[in-house]
Design brief:
Length: about 60
């Protein structure tokens, strides 16, 4: 499930600082767990930035 309901602004990103300030969408259908260290998977950030993992406090839901 992707689209506008999953859009987020990445405020900061420990996984890849280049993603900060970009808008992407969350791929996860369930809240994150231990496997991802409780981080959301965010995609659609640009050609040279792959999917990143971000904590809740690094994201602003749009």
């Amino acid at each position: 499930m992707t689209g506008r309901e999953n859009e987020v602004l990445i405020v900061s990103c420990e996984d890849d600082p280049r993603a900060a300030g970009r808008i992407g969408y969350v791929l996860d259908e369930e809240p994150p767990g231990e496997l991802t260290d409780y981080r959301w998977t965010v995609s659609g950030l640009g050609f040279f930035i792959g999917d990143v993992l971000c904590f809740d406090d690094e994201l602003e839901w749009l």
